Amino acid sequence: MPGRRKKIRFSKIYTFKCKTAAAKDDHLHIGGPGFSRVVFCNEPASFEATSRNYADNYVKTTKYSPATFVPKSLFEQFRRVANFFFLVTAIVSFTPIAPYSAASSILPLSIVIGATMLKEGVEDYRRKKQDDEVNGRKVNMHQGDGSFKLCIWKELRVGDVVKVQKDEFFPADLLLLSSSYDDAICYVETMNLDGETNLKLKQSPEVTSSLHEDSSYKNFKATIKCEDPNASLYTFVGSMEVEEEKVPLSPQQLLLRDSKLRNTEFVYGAVVFTGHETKVIQNSTAPPSKRSNIERKMDKIIYFLFGVLFLIASVGSIVFGIVTKDDLHGDRMKRWYLRPDKAEIFFDPERAPEAAMYHFLTAILLYTYLIPISLYVSIEVVKVLQCVFINQDIDMYHEETDKPAYARTSNLNEELGQIHTILSDKTGTLTCNSMEFIKCSIAGTAYGRGVTEVERAMAKRLGSPLDGIKDQKKDMENKNTKPRIKGFNFEDERIMNGNWVREPHPLIIQGFLRLLAICHTAIPDKDEDTGNVTYEAESPDEAAFVIAALQLGFEFYQRTQTTVSLIELDPDTHEKVQRDYDILNVLEFNSTRKRMSVILKYEGKFLLLCKGADSVMFERLGKNGREFEEITREHVDEYADAGLRTLILAYRELTEEEYKDFNEKFKAAANAVSEDRDTMINEATELVEKDLVLIGATAVEDKLQQGVPECIDKLAQAGIKIWVLTGDKMETAINIGFACSLLRQGMKQITITLETPEIKQLEKVGEKGPIAQASKKSVMQQISEGKDLIASSKNEAFALIIDGKSLAYALEDDLKKMFLDLAVECSSVICCRSSPKQKALVTRLVKEETKKTTLAIGDGANDVGMLQEADIGIGISGVEGMQAVMSSDIAIAQFKYLERLLLVHGHWCYRRISSMICYFFYKNITFGFTLFCYEAYTTFSGQAAYNDWFLSLYNVFFTSLPVLALGVFDQDVSARFCLKFPLLYQEGVQNVLFSWRRIIGWMFNGVCTAIIIFFLCIRALEPQAFKKDGKTADMDVMGPTLYTCVVWVVNCQMAVSISYFTLIQHIFIWGGICLWYFFLLAYGALSPTISTTAYKVFIEALAPSASYWLITLCVVIAALTPYFSYKSLQMQFFPMYHGMIQWIRHDGQSEDTEYCNLVRQRSIRHTTVGIMARSLARTNPLTGSTHRRR
Amino acid sequence: MASEERSSLSAGVESHRAPVPVHQFKQQNLPACKPVLTPAWVITTYFLIGVLFIPIGFISLRASMGVVEIVDRYDTECVPNSYKSDKVAYVKDMSVSKNCTRYLKVKKRMKAPIYVYYELDNYYQNHRRYVKSRNEQQLLHGLRYNSTSSCRPLELNKGLPIVPCGLVAWSLFNDSYSFSRGAEKLNVNRKNIAWQSDRDHKFGKKVHPFNFQNGTLIGGGKLDSRIPLSDQEDLIVWMRTAALPSFRKLYGRIEEDLDEDDVVIVNLLNNYNTYSFGGKKKIVLSTSSWLGGRNNFLGMTYILVGASSMFIALVFLLLHKLSWARQ
């Protein structure tokens, strides 16, 4: 089988692709600066080779090595302002300035730092394992004696000769030496590099192309001189010396690491760049470190708290300075018991200003409790746990590919709940990148009963608005009835199973099917054992056609250099016959021609078979070929509206003279090397591709991924804007727009394009300056026209469609603001023909100009820039390419999971994190302010109200677990309701849960609570006896009493503010309080040297005292009443959206479909896109009215 | 008020693999109580708080009111007229007699035990310098322990260590009181006024005062060097630093009932200097209840919180009815 294929010189089929003239100039540089690399093929171990010290092939993505882990990660930790601050305080706490012992301040810091380092370590270990997997892949390497042996990737050195098998990745950048094909070409899939799915053709230099055997490498020697490692994927300059012969090298010969060998049995290659010097690694930029908006805001709050800290510390210091100075007047000591006459500097009345300065430091140390030391680490722990839940969500697990959701970075969870704009790739993300032949129109008759995803979604929406059960059933049935054939979803008994012969125009149908089977560039691969044929096609559409032909009885099973062989049904004899067709020319498809033709000789006739886009085909029909034009046009329009890709099929008979004339011109054009070669070819083809006879049209479904329309519908209802950025043609993009319900009839499309006659005219002249100027002017004009259109009409939905060329101008600095203003006004935006770079630029534009959170989703390497640029990048892990997943923040298997990821997990995470941060500040302010209040009663001397260990364990022990429970488990609304009421998502987008008002509110609550706790405690405890035995409360009693109240209040506040209690919440909240009592008991039982002031304080003093317990109860209720009243009032009279949903659930109205619809339809405005809006727009035009509960 | 929502398990493959609670946990679908602040519930809560708090308030108030307390400020009265303008000079002058007599009238019958307190005011025992200026180890182990730098400036005197060292001990309160009713002397029991744990575990049984109050500047009281620290209860009480600048400390107990209209004669030595910082000195006689001494604050707070809860409950009820009526 390979032997057979080897004979074909495919370079002949490809008329215009293979040969590109290498730019001669570049080769002059070889050996000079920047072009110094010398590779000794097949002798990597020679002295000359080793002396050059090229990098090995080990690729490392880890941050740390075992040796550098500790210092490097410590350094990373202390780069955070807050951590550094705590480090400084820990150091200062060793000096006498400190109000507490050093140990008590170091312990929490080390716990916090330790936990973060542990997390870093685990993450890095995972990366290491991933590295080991990649570096441990195996490849056949030449052993020097003509034999090849399997080696692991990382052992490769520059100069090694390797043999790569079909469907393997290239282990390094290789120079192609030869392949299994005679002419030493090979096909390469570069999806991991640029996301393009079509195969690239590479060809080795002539000199080595004959080395087809392993043994021929025994004595192979060559020296390659080439450029130094660089990041440019599409350039390569070098030369090779083989046996005194020097040949130039170009990118045509370079096989890049991470691309894949396709359609070729094996290739031999010499390693040129290894490891980190390979182009793909050079090209990979360090992933940008992303921080969420909430975290950035949190930093601001921390700075604010630092401000408060400095303020109250300096107030304290000033008072302290004045009081201290007042202690000594000459000989007269005021507070003699302090011995101000013999004071060290910190308390010296004679040096009061200095003492005040030192006191300032003490005060800062004391009030550090305002700043939650464990906040960062708690957030990190919480986020990691949130990720675990995301990863484990069974509703985001794709069974077919065995891929669960996978959150790669854990620090962006809450951003998921704040997405304002989604920028989506199309191919592989919205669509499966598989084309399915679904309908066709032959001789004016429409065939095909297949149902597209869109039609299904629409039908479902119109039929039963709420449940998706029926649809699932239907799917199941579909699956069960017959095995699905990839690329074929056509169902019509009229022409299947050979029934077409009984149709009105059997000859035309025969021509139609024959055209499908012949007019393409696919290569068949017949499995000798089973007889099944598979096809290797350049694009999935082509494959779909050939498969359709096969299924309909025209089996294309063999291609030679000049013939295409079919097994086809003869309409007359009803038998299967084998026919060979001589292919004379292939006129390739490209984006300007928008058509493809094959010229063949059959039964002495010259036939031209042509297929192409309707825009170019209808105008090329001959007078006698327009018989079915009108009805075909109707069909094509119908198909297009359903989001299908259509092609027109036509043929023409040529006379021998016509053909000869054409062939001469075409050959001359193809062999020309001049710049206008393309024009010449075009002119030649124009000669024959005219006067065509229309046969029919095909409709191929660019198959949407499962559930995409529904998902987009939900996201749109949630108020998220969706932009589609695709590299596809405008028509395809618009098709998909319709298919996804991003576009609908009645929506005004604003199209910005440079395919205008004037620009085309200018392009023909070919001067760059005027073209650019005119283009820009045209774009600017189109944008402002669009804006005017929008401004002039109210209550209408607009869609913006812009192509890549115009986008390039629209993204220029002076236009981008204008462009964005227009885009923001439109309900959906589709950018087609956009390059990866443009995708990234658009993403950046949206992110930076709107200041809103953006999410990019994509599957291919061409989306990497976009994924990295966006606030969150989501990679689709369902398909093969890993590049997008590797640079994404979260990977999911299917686009449809985005719905759950955002609406459920995103909303929850956002709510959890923001509530958690607010609560964190609340609890620390409460604690810090009791300290401050107490200070006021000690003339700000810096004496803490609490024992050292009470102080330091507050954050890490008694109050940390409930916060974690809040951050990991809290749910305002269950997943079912999150999905049912997508508008809930707007809470995150508008950031209502983390607005300054709310934050300040919580802080204010903290201050109030602190004041209530402090004054109630001191007034109730002092000065009288607090127990029956007449003992009075001293500092050792006061401290724990205050502390008990703080712990109770803070934990109960948590219980009051959440509305979701599982066993876990109960354990953590009440456990936190119990823990405090246990601690007090245990700590008090230690010897007094350790427990100091807490010695037996609970059993001896507090527990037997009735007033201690009464005070606790009173304080807790008194401190919580204000918040509780506020919350009840709000819930009752001004509920937030989640409150409303809680009401609905509580009132049991969730079963009342009508009422739910009413609440949900609030989210539909005239500008909303999606199925629901689409069906609503059909039935009744919506007014912008809102319905209010109560 | 709480509705229990048990969502049914999604019929996934996982369900038979993992036990149900684990699956529910993983899918964040645990049975949960989801209280909603419905008007009924809010009003009930507030009402219940009111119902609970007001009685507690009255009970506490009663306990507090039942305590009989006699407070007498003597720092100004106990200075002879000649020294009124310079009280500091008076208190520092060793040659002047510090004797002073106060007559306290019992307004209501007081049942034994009657606690005797001294109350100081504007006295910052909670000053950081003061609090730190002691050494727990030395108090427990005496001269055997000699790294007492925390006691500075009262660590050493004439090169010899001071036991007990530090500002707290040095400033020991040294006014003394004796009581009589008419001609009958009232015994003041001065044992068991300190915490048991302090006596047993913080102050050494074999540690005797040494070199104490021998410096040029005498702070407060002196200690009998024959008695071990663990028995010096005055010192132990004093060394439990007070939390606030105004505080009472236990002096002793009178273990006899005092009848209404009894007059208690207090003979006191006004030794302690509170004049330099303008602090008051008071003597307090007080009985105690199950709640402790006399302080209406707690009871009042309870009543206040209870009453406002009731009030809020009413307001809510009203608002609820109003909004309901409007609908």
Automatic annotation (TrEMBL), chain A:
- Uppermost EC category: translocase
What Gene3D superfamilies does UniProt report for this protein, alphabetically? Answer: Calcium-transporting ATPase, cytoplasmic domain N, Calcium-transporting ATPase, cytoplasmic transduction domain A, HAD superfamily/HAD-like
Its placement in the membrane is given as: Multi-pass membrane protein
Recorded catalytic reaction(s): these are: ATP + H2O + phospholipidSide 1 = ADP + phosphate + phospholipidSide 2
Q: Which residues bind Mg(2+)?
A: 425, 427, 859, 863
Q: What single Pfam family name could you report for this chain, choosing any that match?
A: Cation_ATPase
Query: Where is it localised?
Result: Membrane
| Regions that span the bilayer | 81-99, 105-122, 301-323, 356-377, 920-937, 949-969, 999-1021, 1041-1060, 1067-1086, 1106-1126
Q: Which residues form the active site?
A: 425
Q: Which residues bind ATP?
A: 425-427, 542, 589, 611, 645, 726-728, 833, 839, 862-863
Q: Which GO terms describe its cellular component?
A: plasma membrane
Which of UniProt's keywords are assigned here? ATP-binding, Magnesium, Membrane, Metal-binding, Nucleotide-binding, Translocase, Transmembrane, Transmembrane helix
Q: What is its EC number?
A: 7.6.2.1
Requisite cofactors = Mg(2+)
One GO term under biological process is: phospholipid translocation
**Keyword Isomerase in annotation:** no
Citing just one GO molecular function, the answer is:
ATPase-coupled intramembrane lipid transporter activity
Q: Which family does it belong to?
A: Belongs to the cation transport ATPase (P-type) (TC 3.A.3) family. Type IV subfamily.
Entry's NCBIfam families? ATPase-Plipid, ATPase_P-type
Q: What is this protein called?
A: Phospholipid-transporting ATPase
Q: What is the lineage of its organism?
A: Eukaryota, Viridiplantae, Streptophyta, Embryophyta, Tracheophyta
Automatic annotation (TrEMBL), chain B:
Give the UniProt family note: Belongs to the CDC50/LEM3 family.
Q: Does the keyword Transmembrane helix apply?
A: yes
Q: Which GO terms describe its cellular component?
A: endoplasmic reticulum; Golgi apparatus; plasma membrane
The cellular location(s) given in this protein's UniProt record come to:
Membrane
Q: Which residues form the signal peptide?
A: none
Bilayer-crossing residues are 40-61, 297-319
**What InterPro entries is this protein classified in?**
CDC50/LEM3_fam (IPR005045)
User: Which keywords does this Swiss-Prot/TrEMBL entry list?
Assistant: Membrane, Transmembrane, Transmembrane helix
As recorded in UniProt, coiled-coil segments are: none
Q: Which domain of life is it from?
A: Eukaryota
Organism of derivation: Daucus carota subsp. sativus (Carrot)
What is this protein's name?
ALA-interacting subunit
